[in-house]
Amino acid sequence: MKKLLSMLAVAVVMFTAISCEKNDEVILAEKLPQGVKTFVQTHFPGAEILKVVKDYSGRKAYDFEISLNDGTRLDILKSGKWKEVENYKKGVPESIVPATIVDYVAENYPDAVIVSIDRERGYDVELNIGLGLHFDSDGIFNRYDD
Predict the structure, then answer these.
(1) Using CA atoms, how far apart are residues 91 and 105, in angstroms rounded to an integer?
(2) Any bridge partners for residue 122, and if so which?
(3) Whether the predicted pLDDT of 43 surpasses 50
(4) According to the model, what pLDDT value does residue 133 have?
(5) DSSP string, 19-79
(6) 10 in helix, strand or coil?
């Protein structure tokens, strides 16, 4: 009986915590912080913002999920620092990829294009040849990813 009550209490707490979080919301591109607008204009010149979702990860914490008309999808912090960038059609711009990663890919996979990069505990990179690579926070190759 104690176990059942404990499980019920945990479920109530989880439900309450989830219900307190804000829901994600679609916003106008004009409402983006200047740092985010500058990032998009600098690294994706000529691309048009199709959709912006303000993605809440907590009560006040959020980032932006942005879709561009060139096929790019961005996950970017309100400061303008990117978390994830992907474009499976033409690749991600080298201007956002650390030089050590660009050099490693060019040397070891000269015909490959980086189509996705994720910055969390280092860098996870996906190449258009179906290969995933993990680099540490300094851009040094660590291992292959599945």
Answers:
(1) 13
(2) none
(3) yes
(4) 97
(5) HHSPPPEEE-GGGS-HHHHHHHHHHSTT--EEEEEEEESSSS-EEEEEEETTS-EEEEETT
(6) helix
**Which residue type is seen at 54?**
K
Instruction: Read off the tokens for 128.
Output: 């258009």
Q: List, in order, residues 6 or more apart from 49 with CB less than 8 Å away.
A: 29, 32, 40, 66, 67, 68, 69
- Condensed to tens digits (0 to 9), the pLDDT of residues 76-103 reads 998 889 999 999 999 999 999 999 999 9
User: Can you list the domains of the chain with their CATH numbers?
Assistant: 23-84 (3.40.1420.30), 97-146 (3.40.1420.30)
pTM of the model: 0.78
CA atoms of 37 and 68, how far apart (whole Å): 12
Give the pair of three-digit tokens for residue 129. Answer: 């040849």
